[in-house]
Amino acid sequence: MRSNFERSRHALFAAIALAGAMVANAPAQAQATVDVPRLASGRPDFSGIWETLSEADYDLEPHAGRRDAPPGPGVIHEGTIPYRPEALEQRQRNFAARGEKDPRLRCWVLGVPRGVYYPAPFQIFQRDNDVTLVHQFGHQVRTIATNGSDHPVEKGQEFWLGDSRGYWEGDTLVVDVTDFNPDTWLDRAGNYHSENLHVVERWRFVDRDTIAYSATLEDPKVFTRPWTMDVLLHRRRDLGFELIEDYCNTVEYERYYPHKDGQ
Amino acid sequence: MIARRLAPLLLLIAVSLPQAGIAQTAPAAPPVSPRIPWEKEVRSIAEGPWNGPRLPDGQPDISGFWSNTIANQSNFTDPQAGDPDRPSAAFRLPRNQRAPSRVTDPADGQVPYQPEARALQEDFARNFQNPTKPQYVEPLARCAPAGVPKSFMWHGHEIRQYPGYVLFLFDSGTRIVHLDDGPHLSDSIKLWNGDSHGHWEGNTLVVNVTNNNGKALFGYSGDFMSENATVVERYIFAEDGKRFNYVATFTDPTVYTRPWTATIPLRRFTEADGPMDWHYMVTPVNLPGKQLLESPERICVENNGVFGGGAVGVPSDRPIISR
Q1: pTM, 2 dp
Q2: Residue B300's closest chain A neighbor by CA?
């Protein structure tokens, strides 16, 4: 069980996350008047295929255009990521090696929150007790439990996607994600985290075809304080659009099958 | 987490790279015994009306965890005979004391290959134990999607249902079945899991699978379809909701002499069973007052890079795509 210290720390963090989200989302408030799809239970129904138009995956921070990234205004509420000094050095090493070291280049799971704003579609399937995110890129599938359960009792587990537990605050789905491993990045620019990462996501309709997504990241080993990013997710409405599997981890050997010599 | 637990299991089927070749099975390892005995019979389940529970959208409610009942993917047509060139103890028994062939049509239990295709399948089976070329490595050992129909012959899986969709979560790959019969992707797109559109007929989910790339193979014996194959799957659910038979008809004029049909029997797993090896790899849900089990994330490649990847030509330390 969590200690009192941890409990109060989490409460403080949640308050910071909420405050950040409220400020960031202020222009798009008035949820009660938004006509959105709903489940029979009355909860907002995020089912559908979604994708960001943002440049977040190229670099979460504000950046001019460069060889491997279009320009982007940045998506971080505080402007830049508040790295600890030694962590900033690691980030700079990551940036220098990004053309080789970015886990996406191996088609590995992108993690949370990166999978959400990676520029490829993902499909949300939603029931009362869980929300399932199937990402087109690679083989990433995430379940957000919304059955009232908490993170696993067994601590120290390191999941590629973390462990996601969601609950509703009105029409906002709030997801607490913990139990990460340190092996995923946050973007192509080498922004990163440790196994101590704790993410609080907030999913909310702006209109029936747009989701306001925010994620507040806390990681005392890497960041000096929690920080929040905001991106919009747009419904893919192309005629007849469906996900096309993209198991790109197979590209190096697929030429040998079925029963082929690879020539 | 689940994939980390997969690792030792995969090791048994998977790949190391000794100098003389690549062993896909660990020679000294004892066989893994599932806690439930493999069944020798395949129970027949008739197609008909569905009288069991339904979801609000009218679909039969068959959501939950399922796994196969007779054998894994080691041998397609003699499921309990063991790997190619590594016969099981049951192999010494008369044939009718082992589970029947998964091929239920034609009646001889054999895939009706054209001669060239038969030669390719036999060549793979001959080389499976000591694969000296990349094409002899069973692709599941590299964390490739298990595809159609192999996904139903190894680890357990979960079915989730939604209005308009049936979703299959496998340990290697995910399948989205669109309940719309509606247009398939362009013929030029070939996929490990194909493109699945279907509908319900009473107790039977009927799925047309097109756009197959044919790369997944059907297991260690090297049985296969090509990128020209289409598959019609019929998932026939028993009235008590505890079983289903996966009955799939394969049509591929470039590989087979005629369409043929495979039958794979599966059973449901619930909390009452408790966690069970690879059939039902689940962990407790932290929800006081409820005794629920759930599946942690299903991830193969990242957790198996050394033997599922690097050893057989899938670098885990350098880029493999440039996008």
Answers
A1: 0.91
A2: A139
